[in-house]
From TrEMBL:
This is Adenine DNA glycosylase. One of its GO terms (biological process) is base-excision repair. Belongs to the Nth/MutY family. The lineage of its organism: Bacteria, Bacillati, Bacillota, Clostridia, Peptostreptococcales. Residues 38-189 form the HhH-GPD domain. Binds 1 [4Fe-4S] cluster. Its cofactor is [4Fe-4S] cluster. Keywords: 4Fe-4S, DNA damage, DNA repair, Glycosidase, Hydrolase, Iron, Iron-sulfur, Metal-binding.
DNA sequence: AATACGGGGTT
DNA sequence: AACCCAGTATT
């Protein structure tokens, strides 16, 4: 093992400074797996509550494999990147059917499961099964870029390979999971992405090229981001006194399969909105413009115009399969409505639902 | 190699 | 408003 002294310094730092996190209490393969999937592009604080609630409802692989889509999607509500949980469910079914319910133990096998890439496979293999494979995430990448003063584009796949090879030669053979988690904690609490990294508290400051050169902020080298497109939409809160109309999105693309308030592309004036609703067989008795709402995704921004539409006898109406009349309880307990519609969920029309 | 895919906290 | 986060799959 290369640079054993540095590895020991890192592990000592970890023993003293590691974060206390729920998924570190009892790192079973399922616990580690679930936490790693939830943590993909998602902050620790956002995961804590979802993690606990998810585990209460679906405590093991078998429970997840047997769960309905409604159930696991609802448990994922608010976390985003919903394909993560669809893939995890698929993988759970595969593990039940092909592996006798036992999680594969090597990174090579794990990476073949849906939703598990190089990073997650290595994280599970090292943390749950003690295999010496580096789990290179954004933290390990940033620490590596500074430690080696790498001028490579941090996002490029070839750069990730370099970092992986670097850590593979140095990872602790006795405590591989702790080695990986130590670097994650170091990146999250000391070797911060923005602002001044706290090099005084870093166990690797004396072997870090960027720090020794006083150039911490020159690394990592991050490419410019693609610009975001803007989409204008009109959203209808169609309701009577007890129910509101929901539409299930298609099974591909953004927010696939989730429930939304029905709407259409573009901005409709009140009169064209009334016409639009009538063309779709609805007879609004009252219509009222709502304050505009905006929702920003990574790659697209929605600018939404909303109308509060009172439609008598909504719950008695025959509806196509991808529509539903939801009660307040349904909204809270059954249908997964993504955060993009939070402004409308908070509208008076919804709040006054019986 | 680039883009799609969520949501929210930080700066 | 831009940046970032315990990334993966698809194009």
């Amino acid at each position: 093992m290369k640079d054993q002294k540095e590895t020991e310094q890192l592990l000592s730092w970890y023993d003293a400074r590691r974060r206390i996190l729920p998924w570190r209490e009892e790192p079973t393969p399922y616990h580690v797996w679930l936490s790693e999937i939830m943590l993909q592009q998602t902050r620790v604080e956002a995961v804590r509550e979802h993690y606990a609630r998810f585990l209460r409802e679906l405590p093991d692989i078998h429970a997840l494999a047997s769960a309905d889509e409604d159930c696991y999607l609802k448990l994922w509500e608010g976390l985003g990147y919903y394909s993560r949980i669809r893939n995890m469910h698929k993988a759970a079914v595969e593990i039940e059917e092909r592996c006798g319910g036992e999680m594969p133990k090597t990174a090579e096998e794990l990476v073949r499961l849906p939703g598990i890439g190089e990073y997650t496979a290595a994280a599970i293999a090292s943390i749950a099964f003690g295999q010496p494979v580096p789990s290179v995430d954004g933290n390990l990448l940033r620490v590596w870029a500074r430690k080696t003063a790498s001028a490579d584009n941090i996002k490029a796949p070839a750069t990730v390979k370099s970092a992986r090879a670097y850590y593979a030669e140095r990872i602790s053979r006795t405590r591989p999971g702790d080695y990986n988690q130590a670097l994650m904690d170091l990146g999250a609490t000391v070797c911060l992405p923005k602002g001044q990294p706290d090099c005084d508290r870093c166990p690797w400051s004396r072997c870090c090229s960027a720090h020794l050169d006083g150039r911490e902020l020159d690394f990592p080298v991050v490419p410019a981001k693609a610009s975001r497109r803007v989409e204008k939409r009109t959203v209808f809160i169609i309701h009577d006194s007890s129910h509101v109309l929901l539409h299930r999105r298609g099974d591909k693309g953004l927010l696939a399969g989730l429930w939304e308030f029905p709407g259409t592309e573009g901005v409709l004036t009140k009169s064209s909105a009334v016409q639009f609703l009538q063309e779709h067989g609805l007879k609004p008795t009252e219509i009222r413009k709502l304050p505009p709402a905006k929702h920003v995704f990574s790659h697209v921004e929605w600018r939404m115009t909303g109308y509060d539409v009172f439609a008598d006898g909504l719950s008695a109406l025959p509806l196509p399969e991808d529509y539903a009349a939801a009660s307040r309880t349904d909204l809270e307990e059954i249908y997964t409505v993504p955060s993009a519609f939070a402004a409308f969920l908070n509208s008076e029309a919804i709040r006054s639902l019986l």
